[in-house]
Every structure is written in structure tokens, then in C-alpha cells.
């Protein structure tokens, strides 16, 4: 059944052996459009191209080629999953982030374009401090697929980092991504809840914690609600539990001149900065997504006087919109 309550067979003209590539794409796009999927033509092209091992140019060049029975069957199977609202990235098992290819699995949140604001905010803050070329220590709390950590390492060749997660499956995925991107020598992964198993100091702490209020999860898009891991969405009754957990350990983890960069949910800037004010941190910069939502915040240790290294001018560093390319004993996941 689809989300509209119709049998899958009634919503799609399944690709069949003997159909041309062009005809199969049209049939899939029509079925996806009937079910109000946001990008029916794109989804159809990606699925057909994935099955056939053809990129966009090759699909066009071979548009008249007919499908074999095996190819048609696989296309039908994958299109049924998309009609059931499974995201294309989960069907393919990969997602691009920061221009880099990332493997994903059922235990990892899909990296999203708005999360690139965290990477941009961190890089802008380091640029303001003239620290991008230094041997920085980066920690990604709740790393998932490793997207934030590995994107930053790709831009900071002198840095090394640690990603933490409570899921071993997520950590294995992140480790595989580090290897595929050639970053294994500078990335390690630790199984723990946020930073509970780590000791500081870190120069850069980043995190995209779960920030959806529990009562709001049912109203999310089916692609998110039904396929992203619940622990990566559920921020507790008010959506702020993850921030509180990070704040409880942040000061021992963060170097005196370090920065904390967090992704925010819509309207959470005030509540989140208040939580971290109690831990001695204050906002130094904010970054907005293309919808104008304050999506990332940079925080530092509270300035102690007029001659602090971080003067008021740092509040103006990098607030521009993103370019958009929405305490158990720790166990170490060794590098391969």
C-alpha cells in the first residue's frame, strides 16, 4: 500500500522487459507524480540510472535501449520502495554532503543541505581566528554517518578528529566513509553518548543533535518520520534534551579558545543559547539557511573583559546564508 492507501500495483505502470529506458523513466515519473512525490522526474532518473549503472548523459544517449527482464524487475522493486515514501538516498544507500559521497544506513540520519550551515559556520569562525591551517582537534558529537566531521577534515588538512555515537552500526558507517574519502588517518570513532567518554581539550566541537519535540514527530514528512532513526529525531518533550546533554559536559571538553558549533531547529536559538549560558558559553555568530531560519550557532567561552582575545567584532563573522549545495564504559571502534 502507498501512503495514500492505494495498492502499489494501481499507482504505477511498472517498467517491463522490452520497454525502452526513456519509456521506463516516463512511467516511473508518472507514478511518482500521481503520489505527489516532490521530485518525480529526478527520482525516476536516479533510480533507473542506478539500476543500469548509467549516469545522466549515458541515460540520454541510450534512451532507446530496451530493458532486460532482470533490469525491469529491479526497477519495479525500487520504485515500489519510493512509492512507499522511502527516500531515494536510502534506497541507494548513499547521500552527497558538502560535495562528498557518503554511505548511509538505517542507523544514520540522512545528511541534509541545511546541515552544511554548521560546516560553513565552523570554517568561518576559524577563518576569523586565522586558525584554519593549524593542527586542530575536532570532535563531532553524535556523528552518524560522519558527515560533519569528515566534511571539516576535508577542508582542514592539518586537523584530526573524533566522532562519537551510541550506535555501533552508525560508527561502522562513519569509519567506512572516512576510509572511502581517504581520511582514516585523521579520523577516529568512539562509542559513547555525546562526549561522556572523551577528555578535552578540543578546538572545535560540532553537533547536530536530535531537536524535534517528541509530540511533533508524527507530523513530519513520511520520508523522515518513517525512515530516519527515531533517536536521531527525538529531542525529548521540548526538543532540547540533546542540547542539555551536551551542555553538561561541554566545558571540560572545549579548549579555552575553542568553539562549539551546533545545528538548531526552527525557533530554538534563544532556548539553546540560554542552556549554554549556564555552562559559561555565549553566542559569537549565527548562520541562516536559505529560508532565513537561524540554522547554526557558534559559541565560545564567555569573554572576561574588554581585552579578551575575542572582541565584539567576532559577532559579525560569517552570518551569511548557506549556499545549499531541511556513561557506560566506552568502547573504541578501531580504524581499519
Describe, in plain words, how this protein is organized in 3D.
The protein has 336 residues and is α/β, with parallel strands linked by helices. The chain has two domains: 8-84, Helicase, Ruva Protein, domain 3; 94-333, Vaccinia Virus protein VP39 (Rossmann fold, 3-Layer(aba) Sandwich), CATH 3.40.50. It has eleven helices and ten strands. The model is unreliable at 1-13 and 304-336 (pLDDT under 50).
Based on the model shown, name its key terms.
11 helices, Rossmann fold, eight-stranded mixed β-sheet, Helicase, Ruva Protein, domain 3, 18% strand, disordered N terminus, disordered C terminus, alpha/beta, 336 residues, 2 domains, two-stranded antiparallel sheet
**Helix count, DSSP H or I runs of 4 or more residues:** 11
Q: What count of structural domains?
A: 2
Question: What's the shape?
Answer: elongated
Portion in strands:
15-25%
Low-confidence stretches: 1-13, 304-336
Would you tell me which CATH topology of the largest domain applies? Rossmann fold
The assigned structural class equals: alpha/beta
| Main pleated-sheet profile | 8 strands, mixed
Specify Rg, calculated over alpha carbons: 22 Å
